[in-house]
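Re: beginner question about structure tokens

> Can someone show what the tokenized structure looks like for a real chain? I only ever see the sequence side.

Sure, here's an example I had lying around. Input first:
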Amino acid sequence: MKNNKRPIFSPSSTLASALLVVCVASASVANASSPGLLDIYQMAVLHDAQLAQQKAVYEASKQGVAQARSALLPQIQADASYSINDSDLPADRGDVKTRQLSLTLNQSLYDHASWARYTQSEQSLQQAEYTFNSAEQDLITRTADQYFKVLLAQEDVALSEAQEEADRVQWERAKASAEVGLASMTDVLQAKSSYDLSKSNRISAENALDVAYEELMKLTGKPVKQLKTLMLQVKLPEESLDLSEWEQRAQKNNLSVLQLEMQSQVAAEEIEVQKSGHWFTAGLQAKIVDTDYSDYAAGSITYNDNRSNSIGVSVSLPLYSGGGTSAKVTEARYNYQSVNEALRDSREQARLNARVQVRSIERGQSLIAALREAVKSNRAFLEAAEEGYKVGLKSLLEVLTARSNFYNARRNLVEALHAQILNRLALEATAGDLKADDLVTYDALLSEPEMNDATNS
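And the corresponding structure tokens:
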């Protein structure tokens, strides 16, 4: 059981985790020709557009903090102007050229809205980080899901090819037996129909495998033609399945819950932003102005170059805005209430998901054990049916049914093994603890494809 203290996610810790996975995956590639789960994940990290999108959103959110902070810092502005005054008055009464340079510093002394928005920006950044962490978890689950979809499609092709070949042999035997009077034409037609059906199933399975590989290539950006497989005898790791503990972890650490908790804080701070419409603001301004005059005639008007310095504090208090400020505060409060209801629903959903996944894993363990026995018994029955058919104790229909049951049991076992791993990853994601390191355990269970025969368990 993992430590139930929620890990702190950050881009640096994510990078370290990714580097670890890359190292393990590279070692895997060096020792085997077929890529495994870690290898596929490594390619997906470098290529996946959804992860890259959320990374960009997170980086953009960092700039929101800098923008909000800027409103609290000094604002310095330089201005320059040059003007020519050419009037109809006598030259000594109005013609003049003026050049003016100024430097202005404004510093907010108190602005409740600016401080509230700065707090909001930090909360929004934390929310964006949780969203990015969620995208990382989603990539792990999508990679595993697509990987095992390909493996299941490969199993379907292998089983359909094996059944097609067996049905073809059965059909040829039925024809040969019919020629010497040991089988009826009904047996021949039955064997032929089974063979035709298995051939169509094989074609459909091959098409489904092609589609699965195309979807995997979208994830990785590279074509992959063979993967490591999961042996039917593999022993999956078992961990504690304390239901109440998983529920608590899910309600506390689930990333969707954490995102909404931060969104709730942002909504609460928005109330303060809108309340600031009732508060005064105070600011300091310091200004230097340098003015020069030229090209004017000496006369009754005298233009003197000058420099002026000024510093002062201004205070502004809104008195009445037509009720708009009160309406905005009320709106913000309702938005806060809405987010809190969404947060409550998210906690309940996380708790439900944890309960369902824990029970699915518990049932999955029993299902795998039952299916392993089903594979053994159906194989034994198939062998007995084939021997019985040879000596006339079993009908051809019984043989075909036994073979179909055996292949279905094997296929169901493969699917149950895959589902058990995916449910484990989903449970970790629900608890907010899923990381790339979790793939190491399951990648170690994979074997080279030639070690897995579709006709043996």
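Each token stands for a local structural state, so reading them left to right follows the chain. The chain has a mean pLDDT of 87.
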